[in-house]
Specification:
about 200 residues; mainly beta; Jelly Rolls; four-stranded antiparallel beta sheet; 15 strands
């Protein structure tokens, strides 16, 4: 872990650590995850039509997970994901047992306003989002209040505090276009959301 620039955004119960991962390690982590994980772009039923979800996803845990009528079969933890989890747990002062890895391949991939408040999600634990790849804008708001925006850079860590999901929502924006990256694979954005959940039967 490198020297870090820690910022707490105004009002939002979050902690942002820029440069959480050293550049070389962040590059290696992104390369490994893009190659190793079984990425899938799922189909969602919207307005009576089947539509591709605007991102690719991998669910890593010991059990299946259902979200928005989509079932996610678990993928086993890889050595890289375990190594990243250990670093994230130290920085977040928390323990996590699952991670949803989202891959945003292009400027049109995104996720709209939502809260991570499913019944199995523990509100007593934080959510730690580790960013790899292209810089993307992340927005948060409490209820229908003013929007706070932060750029999630390669190797940064955003920790959303315990209980935040009760009355805050967040989204990852589309872009007009992606900047030309120095490395080809850096045009993708991988956002790893480490969480603590209980299995729902």
């Amino acid at each position: 872990m490198t020297a870090q620039n820690t910022a707490t955004l105004s009002e939002a119960p979050v902690k942002l650590i820029r440069g959480f991962l050293a550049q070389d390690f962040a590059d290696a982590a992104l390369t490994a995850l893009l190659a190793e994980l079984p990425w899938e772009r799922r189909i969602s039923r919207m307005y009576g039509k089947d539509m591709p979800v605007p991102r690719m996803e991998v669910w890593v845990a010991d059990y299946a997970y259902t979200y928005s009528h989509r079932e996610y079969q678990p993928t086993s933890w890889t050595p890289m994901l375990v190594a990243l989890k250990a670093k994230v747990e130290i920085a977040a002062h928390d323990k996590f047992n699952s991670v949803l890895v989202n891959r945003y391949e292009n400027e049109k991939d995104s996720v709209g306003w939502h809260a991570d408040n499913e019944p199995e999600m523990s509100q007593e634990h934080s959510i730690a989002s580790l960013s790899l790849g292209a810089t993307r804008s992340f927005e948060m708001r409490k209820d229908n209040g003013p929007i706070q925006r932060v750029d999630l850079e390669h190797g940064s860590l955003l920790v959303m505090r315990a209980g935040m999901q009760r009355n805050w929502t967040h989204q990852l924006l589309k872009l007009a276009r992606l900047p030309i990256p120095p490395l080809g694979h850096m045009k993708s954005k991988a956002l790893l959301g480490y969480t603590q959940r209980t299995q729902c039967w």
